[in-house]
Design goal:
heterooctamer, A: 227 residues, Methane Monooxygenase Hydroxylase, Chain G, domain 1, 2 domains, 9 helices, 0% strand, B: Methane Monooxygenase Hydroxylase, Chain G, domain 1, binds manganese (II) ion, Translin (chains A, C, D, F, G, H)
């Protein structure tokens, strides 16, 4: 190998090393934020309905501050290299999606769409080739949401809230129906989607327990109507 | 159907289209990569075949090198056409999305290309030369060449050179050739060593390179030992053997 | 080695690669069909009894179209090479068996036999050496059926259908008794058979709950009153 | 599942175990035969040319008796199941191919073709779906042949036979050229083919030594004188 | 042939006979062991079958236990005959030579025997009882029982008891039975724990036992929860369910 | 290598071998003790509340005798070599931590701290560079504790003790909250921490079953109050 | 488990532990001896023929002292338990066999038989069921001998001893012919026997080099005569 | 877990993480240096004797700069924690040992001792509990040296230097004799030591080729004399 060639390659390698280092710093930051939010939201399982809004409000500032991180990363990534580096932050991003979608569900009972999630996280359309919310990351966030809601269905009953499991059941079945429209390849997403069945089964059992004991009188109608 | 479900269905329907498109593209690129791999392997086989087919009438080894390389170049052009098509699929930010699917074929291509280049020039092909070979008529790169693909492709070259050196020994001039290849591969090993901290895969391949190098060294050694014993110049040796075998 | 010989050998070596490619395409197709059917049949858990026939009717065309795939594969596999390639499609085939058997159960309450399943999937006796329904694939399909029915037992109650769990209980115990007569080896089938016990246990719990609730109206009041 | 059905399924499940046992017995037999032949043929390395025909004759009865084994296996394998069981005997079969090809080379100096090998081993065309000589097994046998011939080249010289290495050199190069025309995959065959180069190199060294020694009597003195 | 080779041939010929005899005996014992394994598995299947076949008319569970055990004993006798034959092959120092070949079948036999014993007595079979079962009519042991085979065979019993407990739940009296089995397996786990430092294999099996135990505990829990809710004595529960299912 | 050099190296190597042997003897002893304790404590799952103190008392002597082992090891390890040998006993040590913490929880309902655990095991501050209770070993012990308590929650209900699961739930959630504030890197500890989620889910389900059926009348208030 | 049973098992286990410990001490001793002998015999590769007897004499005392070890082990092993414990010392025993056979070959040029080896090592017929020289251990020793002789063939030439390789060639081929009479199973012995081929090839190449250069004038006759 | 406790644990965990990060940076640096040296020293195989001193001189500055790294690591490691972190740099350290010993051999023909190696690498006695050259790392370096020298023996002959293999043979046998006196237990070192036998065999074969052909006239005497 002549010296010029070695020089050329070394130059390229050095650039990469430096960039990776910088992105890593931002990801550490991102990670801290999502860890804080997950910690706070863990309390939903023991929070009575009326105290919930206050809890959700306490999470929101951290969620909003995620915009700083996404902007910082977008500024670092060179044009067209989104897919090259995204592995580095995708875990954090999926946690952030989960957080945003969980808050949205608890407030509105509805599903937070992809573009709304992007917006909440401050991801801008013109970053397209440097930082965007890929469908697969959004879907991972939703699966984490379903995992958490199956736990919430159980704990709501403990707290005496018999409506929540039924609402969750309807919501989760909708999401599951959505997923079953997709041709997922044999990857992590597929495996995690397959595992959703256990969450759904658990939620169904809670709804069963509640209906059997007629604890939520209107429930039977609701569930059937939701089909 | 509830309106909320309706809403979800609409959202996921868009995802479905997008994911299907992505999966189809991925499949196409994997297929291309496999085709490129197969064609590249054929180029390598072809080079070995031309270089080792014992054509006693062709005394001039440079001539044979040139002929082999010319045939290789011809087939490499076909592969380059496939890369043009791959390039069209991976414009903009798509390249890095599918990089891992393109990579296996690309590395095999670099192996074939660098082998051809070695037969032509006796040198290691440079990064820019490889990138240049992946460029359309208007000078546009089909996609960026990664340092990893470049180095891993070259690393595989050493294995082919080992096969080439060992097979050559039974040919006119092959004994000299084994020595040349030996020095060349030894330098490759030294050159690659400094890049190993960057790529795990390269570390693994370095140990393959080491063992290829040892095999070439053993072959060169066997030649040197015999040449020292009989003290006959190598060109004459060839003649003696040919005479002995054909008599 | 003469050139002709080399040519012939090369041809044979290449054929396999090409054949695998073609079979794979058919399997992808097969897979899509079974995925569609599974998606539709997932709705049985929230469909009231009277709407069930319509749902099953919507699945039937896809089930019937599986015949095209089995025929295509049978046409591809060279004579005598069934065992060489069968791993490629056995997952899809097991799903198809499950689908056919589930529809049959929901319509008739009975078990779909091996030869009837073959017939529904259009598998022809003369394909014997290229495409056939191996016993082990049939049995895998049945186990998946039991897995699904244990879920259905739970959800039927939620939908107010208290007869279904009892029907399922009888049907599933019968299948289980059949399996327990087989001398299974220590393979996947054996492991999945072992897991059937949990499905039966779950169904039993539902039957238990339902029986106690149905009981005498007086005692029901006791229990309900305690809620 | 009715009793009859269970009975039939059980029977099928048991059959395989028994069949494997029976094939294994035949393979043990086959193995013994090839071991005996290999043991006898090992003597070629110390047998002078004139004693060779007698040695080869002593091997032939065992080689011919291999037909009993191939016939027995062909009779055991159920129709269409060649690919299911072939792994069991392929090692023995490759040894038998090697033996037949080595004898043929030593007698005629030529290469034994695939169909001639089949014939010698009594493999019949109509067994096609139960027992046949797969190309890959034939090629493995040839590679073993080359391995052995490189050793023979060395030992021939020790025995004073200076022609043999040259004959072997021509023969082996021809086989090698044949192999190099094949599009082998990255499997065992490819790896073993790669190793042929070392055999050729070894043979070449012998030819080299012999040529130089044979040379002009005058130069021979020079070299010999130096010893 | 040289005399030295002749000499070697004679020596090795004796070896050949000896080794062939050894290999044949080994094959026979492996075959026996496999047969014993299969028969033992069949005993276990049989016990499960008799115990779980829903014969509504047989109200008395002790009776069913006795019937199952009796059928098991019958088949175990067949196996014991095979052990007598094994014993003849492994007299003197031979036992320890072939111990590893005999072991798999022996452990499976101990699993089946201890299962039968449990159904009969509700207890864990003792070391001496197992050794006693491997004894001829004149009181001669077929071979010594190793502690390892004894413990590993028993360890597998817990897995079968788990299956038995779970399947029983859907039967009359099964709910009580699950509780008994739960206590029994829990004690097994404690008892085996102290022997784990001696046998690696037992350590692995202990974790299987732990997970079997958890499964039984979960089943016992599900029963207890429902029984507490409805506050009905277990015997009555059975009747209520039978009535509900058959109505 | 000169003889003197070899001599010196051999001496050092021999020392290590001998030391390892001696430590191993102590670890075997330690292992025996922890297994005895684990065997005894396994009975908590079938011991009614009033018999518990006697059971715990029966374990205490063995727990106290662990001090002999820790002292013996501390005496064996050369200065500064704690990190060289600790792998040898860390499994036993973690079991001992688990035992001590379980007994403490069952007696007091509280968490045994790191320094109290050290004290119980007789680990002395001045052994610092030879034998100490590393944080990671303490945390491993706590995770084992949570694993065991999730099983205890289940079995307490079976024994008719409906208060225990609720106490466990509060205790375990507290530990989990503590863990979730730690920056665990991706190692065994992290993986085991992740698995805690399953234990918590399990415990929540037990609390759910108990509250759903109003088996512990005061429970609802308690759980909510404990948040 | 009742106490009596536990007692019984513990007793058996304790016996085994103690015995193993005692045997291990003897094996350590045995191992030291074989290591010493191997170290000394390693010098044959650089010892000229006339200095060889002195070298061999220096090894003999250690070889003879092996009798103490075999006697000690024989005294420890309970009746009929030879095969239970033999794994513990078989490596040392194989080394001892190798040593005895190498010395014998270097002195006499012949093969040391099994019973002679037993005698040298002081193994007595009446120990039969407690300590004996199993055929397999003897054969392992012979394979190690061949490995060593192939190295010696090379080094003899370096030392100017051109007769030795030819003697070795004859001797090793005899042994190899012996081995090829055995039906070895697929175990270590089989693998090591397979590897003998490389040693034989190496020796053949040395003989080739020597004959080609007519360094041992009478050699050709010898080799041919040995066939 | 109380907040203070968590705080303290977290602090300790963070310290470790940070420390690991810093050591890793130094190890990366160390690795770069050793790879540079290995790359350069690879050229000894094609460097004629007279150009060797210049080549070795070109490596020396990098070797000397290793002192900066060892000093930096020693400064980072907390007292008593040598054994905790040493795995991180032991590969690099072994490469450095190899480099130093190879240079020393090529210059002096002698073996670089343990303490001299320490000195060259700037390792100071007072770092004892933080950074030292463990015997096992030194021995690993020597084994790598032997591996390299066996290759050098081959390549020296190719370069026409027939004396070098003989020198290497004497040197390596000396090292091997040293190793064979050590009581290595069954670990990596033992396995690598076993592999030395192949290197020695290889070197012996080179010496054989050279003596057989009388390429180094004085060789016979030397080798015999060196014994
Ligand atoms: Mn290649
Ligand atoms: Mn079992």
């Amino acid at each position: 190998m002549d010296a010029e060639n070695v020089e050329r390659i070394n130059q390229l390698l050095d650039q990469d090393v430096e960039l990776r280092e910088k992105i890593k710093d931002q990801v550490t930051e991102f990670d801290k934020k999502t860890r804080t939010m997950t910690g706070l939201l863990n309390r939903i399982h023991s929070t009575p309905p009326d105290a919930l809004p206050a809890l959700l409000d306490s999470v929101r500032p951290t969620l909003e501050s995620c915009r700083d991180v996404t902007a910082a990363i977008a500024a670092l990534v060179p044009p067209n290299q989104f897919w090259r580096w995204k592995e580095m932050w995708s875990n954090s991003l999926r946690s952030a999606v989960f957080t945003a979608a969980l808050i949205h569900y608890l407030q509105t009972g509805g599903l937070l769409g992809l573009s709304e999630t992007s917006e909440i996280l401050g991801i801008q359309a013109e970053w397209q080739d440097r930082f965007t919310l890929a469908i697969e990351d959004y879907l991972h966030g939703l699966i984490t949401l379903v995992n958490e809601l199956s736990r919430l269905a159980v704990n709501s009953v403990t707290l005496g809230n018999f409506e929540q499991p039924i609402k969750i059941s309807v919501f989760v079945k909708d999401i599951f129906a959505g997923f079953s429209m997709l041709n997922l390849k044999n990857d992590t997403l597929r495996r995690r989607y397959d595992s959703l069945k256990y969450d759904i089964k658990k939620i169904e059992e809670v709804v069963y327990d509640v209906s059997l004991r007629k604890l939520a009188p209107s429930s039977k109608v609701d569930v059937a109507g939701a089909v | 159907m509830s309106s909320s479900r309706n809403n979800v269905v609409n959202v996921f329907d868009a995802f479905r289209i997008d994911l299907d498109e992505h999966n189809d593209r991925r499949e196409r690129l994997i297929k291309s990569s496999r085709d490129i791999t197969n064609l590249s392997k054929k180029v390598i086989f072809l080079l070995h075949r031309v270089m080792t087919t014992d054509d006693v009438s062709t005394a001039d080894k440079d001539d044979r090198n040139a002929r082999a390389a010319a045939q290789g170049r011809e087939k490499l052009k076909e592969i380059q056409k496939l890369f043009a098509a791959v390039g069209a699929e991976v414009q903009g930010d798509r390249f890095w999305r599918y990089q891992r699917n393109v990579s296996p074929g690309l590395q095999e291509y670099i192996e074939a290309l660098s082998f051809t280049h070695y037969l032509e020039t006796g040198k290691l092909i440079s990064y820019d030369e490889v990138q240049q070979s992946l460029t359309g008529e208007l000078g546009e790169s089909y996609f960026p060449l990664t340092t990893e693909d470049y180095l891993l492709g070259l690393s595989d070259l050493t294995g082919e050179l080992m096969r080439y050196a060992i097979s050559s020994i039974s040919q006119r001039g092959g004994r000299m050739k084994a020595n040349e290849v030996c020095t060349f591969v030894r330098n490759c090993k030294s050159d690659f060593e400094v890049f190993t901290p960057h790529f795990r895969e390269l570390r693994k391949k370095q140990s393959v390179t080491s063992s290829s190098l040892e095999k070439i060294e053993d072959a060169a050694y066997a030649i040197a030992v015999r040449a020292s014993e009989y003290d006959v110049p190598p060109e004459m040796l060839d003649d003696i053997i040919v005479r002995s075998v054909t008599s």
